[in-house]
Amino acid sequence: HERADELAARTDLAAVILTGAGPTFCAGMDLKAVLKEPGAPLRLLQSIAELTIKLRDLPQVVIARVNGAAIGGGCGLVGVAAIALPHPDAKLGYPEVDLGVCPAVVAPWLVAAVGAARARRILLEGGTMTGHRALELGLVAEIVERERLDERTQELARSIAKAGLNALRATKHHLNDIEGERLRELVRKGAHVSADVIAGAEAQERLARLYGT
What we know:
By secondary structure, this protein is mainly alpha-helical. Helices cover 54% and strands 11% of the residues. It has 10 helices and 6 strands, in the order H-E-H-E-E-H-E-E-H-H-E-H-H-H-H-H. It has a 3-stranded parallel sheet with strand order 1-2-4, with helices on both faces. Strands 3-5-6 form a 3-stranded mixed sheet. The chain starts with a helix and ends with a helix.
């Protein structure tokens, strides 16, 4: 959040690269943590919701360098980015329903990325997909071999940086206006929907079995 706030104030940057530390892009919300403390699910989900909105609203073009697994909320970050580049072995997906959890925060971004019909199938099927399948569905822009991921990401960022900064900012702002505030309202509402589901017996039982608590 702090970094996103810093970047929102920058007028000298054309692109931002979003990536993971280590071999994973982002494994999503810490589901084990939400079992321990009442109120924790809503706080965490609201934080994730606001972060996705901040990333979407950045004046820079956000490039997701998907260096590994992008699961649940992590895959939501892929959908928020303007351009996503995974390597062929990266695992992506929304397995929330398999765990008794509702992917309500990421759902609006997925609909915006791939369309309502495809998003419906992806979220209701659950599970994960390969980078190639994500490309077929329109979730990512292209597949890049692992050894070329850094090179291709930097190449794309440099290409974007050749554009006019004012033109990029105006275009992004206009695209966000086209999406409308309703999308962001649904993301925020999704935090409450998901928190209510996590608090239910089904999710609590499934998560307790998964984490042995």
